[in-house]
Amino acid sequence: MILTISTTARPATDLGYLLHKHPHRVQEFTQSCGVARVFYPEANENRCTAALLLDVDAIRLARTSGRSADYALGQYVNDRPYAVSSLLSVALADVFRTARAGRCTLKPELAATPIPLEISLPALPCRGGPELAEQLFTPLGWTVEARPVPLDDAFPEWGDSRYVRLTLRGDIRLADALNHLYVLLPVLDDAKHYWVASDEVDKLIRAGGSWLAEHPESTLITRRYLRHQSALTRSAFERLAELGDDVAERLEPPVDEEPGSDAAGIGCEADTAAAPPLNLLRREAVLGALGELEARTVIDLGCGSGQLVSALLDDPRLTEIAAADVSTRALTIAAHRLRLDRMPERRRERLQLFQAALTYTDSRFAGYDAAVLMEVVEHIDPPRLTALEQVIFGTARPGHVIVTTPNSEYNVRYPELEGMRHRDHRFEWSRSEFRSWASNVCRVHGYTADFRPVGEDDPEVGPPTQMAVFARAGGSDA
């Protein structure tokens, strides 16, 4: 099985520095299933291609795989020597370990920079077809070309096989590209050649921590990567919930899985009522407040992956909706989630999606009945909060501003949580700290604030999320 990685970033031979593999040598690496080789079919200033070739020894693989559910003959006669699978994913992790970590002593600025990449996989098992490959890679910034491989070119009437020829193109940081492949190759195959244990959750979090929580297909990715083992899947979702609030709603098994089965979790009862996920409660609280305010135009500041935007579009009372985020990757994911390219024209006319930083004055923020900052302020460096306050409350000055943020006092109710709820949080406020900040905003910019709990209001530590609904003093004449 083979994987090729090409770049046209000049000088293209710098790819050797990033991969820590010299373009003029063939290097071999012993694997449990055979031998991995790295070589360069082409290496010049304009284009450089590195190939990872895994030579699988079917007999060695059968002897080291332990007890298998395969038929005895199937352990020796299969597609593993030819088709990309978790075998190649493991080899990639071993051979390009330093590159996956984004480390390059000689070219550190290059390792941190997106470069034009083209990745080719000529035979990839894809349970879900070319469409699934597009669903998994497109939100990550790739242009995807996935062509089905016919069962037999001589007999087209037989149809297509389960394999695709996959080509990915995009301006992506090499470390990110390798981690995308490491996670998604076994997901597309929906199989692993080795026993999946609890350490696989750690591997998934390390490789996907920067993007998996916000991926529209994170549920499918996590379940398949962990071989549909419910205990491991739940553990992974709980870990991801610390990285992104959107993940909380995915903790419950999908409705098509039967309680009591391994997929749904051993010992589950059919009539057990699951508590509504916090991010759903948060969206409902924001939507309820907007309904009370009778807002007709709304801007979602820091829209992330677009979950709130989707709910706003479903409200026919809202005639104009804007959504802004500083992250272009988040906007790409939002566009994919919202199916922007296929959105009906009347629905699309109500929506404006754009990139912007909330700490810099932007005329596009102004003119709305209400602005929403849902789980946003805690991502701002404290010295920049004053700038955000001036931009939103001082310059844009919407009639109402709705702000939600974690309540740090509630963190003791998360036994597995270490530190803050998200690795990008710059701080998390207690209830008194949030009220103090909001009161100062009101005093400086002429607003009043109504404080509300979101989620169960614990008598000792308060709610998991706290919300303030700001109203501009004097209404529209202020």
Automatic annotation (TrEMBL):
<dbReference type="InterPro" id="IPR038546">
    <property type="entry name" value="Hen1_N_sf"/>
</dbReference>
<keyword id="KW-0694">RNA-binding</keyword>
<dbReference type="Pfam" id="PF12623">
    <property type="entry name" value="Hen1_L"/>
</dbReference>
<dbReference type="Pfam" id="PF13489">
    <property type="entry name" value="Methyltransf_23"/>
</dbReference>
<keyword id="KW-0489">Methyltransferase</keyword>
<dbReference type="GO" id="GO:0090486">
    <property type="term" value="F:small RNA 2'-O-methyltransferase activity"/>
</dbReference>
<dbReference type="GO" id="GO:0046872">
    <property type="term" value="F:metal ion binding"/>
</dbReference>
<keyword id="KW-0949">S-adenosyl-L-methionine</keyword>
<dbReference type="InterPro" id="IPR024740">
    <property type="entry name" value="Hen1_N"/>
</dbReference>
<dbReference type="GO" id="GO:0031047">
    <property type="term" value="P:regulatory ncRNA-mediated gene silencing"/>
</dbReference>
<dbReference type="InterPro" id="IPR029063">
    <property type="entry name" value="SAM-dependent_MTases_sf"/>
</dbReference>
<dbReference type="GO" id="GO:0003723">
    <property type="term" value="F:RNA binding"/>
</dbReference>
<keyword id="KW-0943">RNA-mediated gene silencing</keyword>
<keyword id="KW-0460">Magnesium</keyword>
<dbReference type="InterPro" id="IPR026610">
    <property type="entry name" value="Hen1"/>
</dbReference>
<feature type="domain" description="Hen1 N-terminal">
    <location>
        <begin position="1"/>
        <end position="241"/>
    </location>
</feature>
<keyword id="KW-0808">Transferase</keyword>
<keyword id="KW-0479">Metal-binding</keyword>
<comment type="similarity">
    <text>Belongs to the methyltransferase superfamily. HEN1 family.</text>
</comment>
<dbReference type="GO" id="GO:0001510">
    <property type="term" value="P:RNA methylation"/>
</dbReference>
<protein>
    <recommendedName>
        <fullName>Small RNA 2'-O-methyltransferase</fullName>
        <ecNumber>2.1.1.386</ecNumber>
    </recommendedName>
</protein>
<dbReference type="InterPro" id="IPR024026">
    <property type="entry name" value="3'-RNA_MeTfrase_Hen1_bac"/>
</dbReference>
